[in-house]
């Protein structure tokens, strides 16, 4: 049996991009992952397909697992000879009880490694536009627990000493004790006019920041319904927020956007949306798989030299086509003098990466656009190869046949529904989603199949953004309202339209 090994990994404060590279590698190699409520669940997309996932999350009003049970679970899973990653919000050793977990492993002679995470004590104020230190304002900062162990006989937080400090005070997990904290500081001489701030769910789309003074921050928090998880800040650096509040300047800040593309393709769209400030939830409703039988496909690929035209209608088609050529050991030169067409710029770029120059792309990135683009090139009797999905529309092949072309369709890949449960999607939709993006008709159809007709009311407040008219029509046929349709049928065009639509919301 393999030697047990445990990684105690800090996942950062909420924004999934704030995890360290080392932390990400620990997720990728783990055979078992124990994660808590403050770790962004999007990080689990980097896990191995066979990894065991255990939610040990503890909420303020409900402990799914006690700390002792988590310790025992870490030990038992490690003793099975598994590589275990314990994914914790923030940093494991900053009020994260990582030390307790490490000691439990040490006592059982289990090897472990601690991977630091970006602590919310620094990251959350930064996302709130507040530096924890600033020259001539605050030369120190102090991180204090706002929730001491209730079993301790004597409290160890020295409010008398804290009240005398000129630096920034940062209380973690202290919202439920806010009144007590502020009163004790003022009792020990802290000026009641000292600036104070609360930052709720920092670094996420649901981040909210409220400011006031030590005297009125309790009332401000109550009026704005600020609850856990939030951090408390006290100090003069808060006055810098109007000038340094960079996050609020991002056009999609505060927006939660659901991306339904395949796992492999979601990254480009997600990255662009995140750069504009959005919180992205990836829930692929399609996955790309190889055909079950290659017999007919291989027969057609072995006669490539007889083909005058090849039309690629997706990046997936390009990838699958060249993967099969490689598997069959067919030289790329077998394409000969065949003219190559791509449905759009992304497909064109995918072909160029293979060293293939595209002869023509249509103005409109649709089957109808391709037919318009090739009508003066393809002659009667020409052989046209269409490597595409098994569920692709027939408009292109039918239009080519009307031109007199001999059409050879190749279902070079299959589009299937991932093995997600309806409960997974319903859990995501418990928190309102501002936008849901669809990049193909199959993403829409599969989304509704997973969601269920009876649950369509859960997306009534969400705006639907589609990549083009074909996808939009599919959504309408399924009884959905399309709010945004990209003018240019590309990922870049879709992001641009979402951004512009978001700008209009304020008018």
Helix/strand layout:
Layout: E1 5-10, H1 21-29, E2 32-35, E3 52-55, E4 58-59, E5 62-63, H2 67-79, E6 83-88, H3 98-107, E7 111-115, H4 120-127, E8 141-145, H5 159-164, E9 168-172, H6 178-187, E10 195-200, E11 208-213, H7 217-223, E12 230-234, H8 241-244, E13 256-259, H9 266-275, E14 279-282, E15 287-289, H10 295-301, E16 309-312, H11 315-328, E17 339-342, H12 345-353, H13 367-374, E18 383-389, H14 395-403, E19 406-416, H15 422-428, E20 435-438, H16 441-451, E21 463-466, H17 469-477, E22 484-485, H18 491-504
Parallel strand pairs: 1-6, 1-7, 2-3, 2-6, 8-9, 13-14, 13-20, 16-17, 16-18, 18-19, 20-21, 21-22
Antiparallel strand pairs: 4-5, 9-12, 10-11, 10-12, 15-19
Count the beta strands.
22
Which spans of ≥5 residues are poorly predicted at pLDDT below 50? none
Span of the ends, CA to CA:
64 Å
What is the beta-strand fraction?
Answer: 15-25%
Number of domains: 4
Largest sheet: 5 strands, parallel
**Approximate shape:** elongated
Proportion in helices:
25-40%
Number of helices: 18
